[in-house]
Design a protein that fits this description.
There is one protein chain. The protein has helices spanning 11-14, 21-33, 35-43, 77-88, 110-126, 143-155, 168-177, 198-205, and strands spanning 54-61, 64-71, 93-98, 105-109, 134-138, 158-161, 182-186, 189-191, 194-196, 214-218. The protein is an alpha/beta fold. It has a domain at 77-218: Rossmann fold (3-Layer(aba) Sandwich). Helix 4 (77-88) runs antiparallel to helix 5 (110-126), helix 4 crosses helix 6 (143-155) and helix 5 (110-126) packs across helix 6 (143-155). 23% of the residues are buried. GO terms for molecular function: acetate-CoA ligase activity. Residues 24-81 form the Acetyl-coenzyme A synthetase N-terminal domain. This is Acetyl-coenzyme A synthetase N-terminal domain-containing protein. Residues 83-218 form the AMP-dependent synthetase/ligase domain. Belongs to the ATP-dependent AMP-binding enzyme family.
């Protein structure tokens, strides 16, 4: 026995939605009827450094399964997440952050986000991080964590996010697994009014990770960074 339940969406939410049920169903059907035309149209919403040549190339042969989308195309995720919005709506809010203490909060506009991400990207490049390098991010839930991820994508580095509640050994395992040579962390984190000694954990983890040569520390609480 199966029941189909539909819960009404409050007007306060549905009124500001970017899509309604009818539009969703129409778009979904378009994607089934003519997927190449549908995805070509969706791709126009992005900024491309180099245009794609073919929407998709697939092979499902037993010995050569291959699926490629937008072959020949080149884009930058950081630019698409930030730059195109900063150009059109620079003062629009990109990030709303609330700290462990709800009275500590921050709103970051798209133009501010672009400047902060570019600053961090330049710091990474200045420390020798280049395209293809792995960067471990071991941060609390703060805006700088987003800046770090977007900075990595901006310069073509691969970021590996490690949950800030993990132990030094768990952090070390993940640094070694992705062969990371650069790490971004904070002095401390705050979770449920409890102080998380992030930099101290990093110091212990790096005892097992001789190839991780550079650590960037974001000062959040003023805790000891060694």
């Amino acid at each position: 026995m199966t029941d189909n339940l539909i819960y009404p969406v409050p007007e306060m939410m549905s009124g500001s939605a970017n899509i309604d049920d009818a539009t969703y169903k129409r778009l979904y059907q378009e994607s089934l009827d003519n997927p190449e035309a549908f995805w070509a149209k969706q791709a126009e919403r992005l900024d491309w450094i180099e245009p794609w040549q073919k929407i998709k190339e697939t092979s499902f042969h037993r010995n050569s399964v291959s699926i490629k989308w937008f072959s020949g195309g080149k884009l930058n995720i950081s630019a698409n997440c930030i730059d195109r919005h900063a150009a059109k709506t620079p003062d629009r809010t990109a990030i709303i952050w609330e700290g462990d203490d709800p009275t500590v909060n921050k709103a970051v506009s798209y133009v501010e986000l672009k400047n902060l991400v570019c600053q961090m990207a330049n710091v990474l490049k200045g420390r020798g991080v280049k395209k293809g390098d792995r960067v471990t991010i071991y941060m609390p839930m703060v805006p700088e964590a987003a800046y770090a991820m977007l900075a990595c994508t901006r310069i073509g580095a691969v970021h590996s996010v490690v949950f800030g509640g993990f132990s030094p050994d768990s952090l070390a395992d993940r640094i070694i697994d992705c062969n990371s040579s650069f790490l971004i962390t904070a002095d401390e984190g705050v979770r449920g009014e409890r102080i998380i000694p992030l930099k101290a954990n990093v110091d212990k983890a790096l005892e097992r990770c001789p190839d991780c040569r550079t650590v960037l520390v974001i000062k959040r609480t003023g805790g000891e960074i060694g």
